[in-house]
Write a structure and sequence with these properties.
single chain, alpha+beta, 2 domains, four-stranded antiparallel sheet, two-stranded antiparallel ribbon, 10 helices, elongated
């Protein structure tokens, strides 16, 4: 099978997998892997398991149904989770799931041997009705709030950058390895949104490639209220 997943009932994950695809996604993938290990439903050469979103939420009660939906959609977009409708009655929309282990192998092959040890799932925040969508950076022992950063960017710019984008996560990860924090990301987003939001020429640069690229530190240290529209201030590569 894959050393990135375990055949245990407790909710556990591999830190490097969570850093690569997101904490929520890693937890959901592990849970589906567990049920695939005991499922008797074999169709077209694959083992499948079916559940409604509400039934998954009963197994992962520290999350809302909408959080689980987002994690599943993200896994589908990453190509790690397969979904079909194998119900006898097509009006029954309950989704069936299987893991694309061959795709997961590509992730495994790209990870160092030292990053394969499992850890227990993080405890949910008892003071909140939903768990923050964080992922672990196992190299620095930090927790990287990928989804919070991308969600805040979407909120401030009115855009819809995908939470599952590997490129965007790599940019955020790179800045975190340099020592930047969530507060630094929100400051950059706030500053550049104020500068470019309503400018028809520069609005297109309100994107992860520009904001979270190599000029991140210069944006962070920009004086508030000072509008900078020089070409040299941008990462212009698409």
């Amino acid at each position: 099978m894959s050393r990135l997943l375990i055949n245990e009932s407790p909710v556990m994950i591999i830190p490097s997998l969570a850093a690569k695809i997101g904490l929520n996604e890693a937890v959901v993938l592990q849970q589906i892997h567990y049920w695939l290990g005991i499922s008797k439903h074999k169709i077209e050469g694959r083992t499948w398991v079916y559940n409604t979103y509400e039934e998954w939420q009963k197994q992962l009660p520290f999350w809302s149904v909408s959080t689980i939906k987002r994690a599943i959609r993200s896994l589908e977009m990453l190509g790690l989770l397969l979904s079909e409708n194998w119900n006898q009655m097509k009006m029954d929309k309950t989704k069936w799931y299987s893991i694309a282990y061959e795709k997961l192998q590509e992730f495994e092959d790209s990870l160092p041997e030292s990053q394969s040890a499992p850890i227990k799932e993080l405890a949910p925040d008892e003071n909140s009705d939903k768990t923050k969508e964080f992922a672990c950076d196992s190299s620095s022992k930090k927790v990287i709030p990928y989804d919070e950063i991308i969600g805040y960017l979407n909120e401030k710019t009115g855009k819809n950058f995908k939470l599952s984008s590997i490129k965007t996560r790599e940019l955020i990860h790179a800045r975190y390895r340099e020592g930047f924090t969530l507060e630094d990301f929100t400051r950059v987003i706030d500053l550049k949104s104020s500068d470019w939001q309503f400018d028809p020429v520069w609005n297109k640069f309100l994107r992860p490639e520009t904001l979270f690229g190599t000029k991140f530190e210069s944006y962070l240290n920009q004086q508030e209220g000072k509008k900078r529209l020089a070409e040299g201030d941008f990462n212009l590569d698409d």
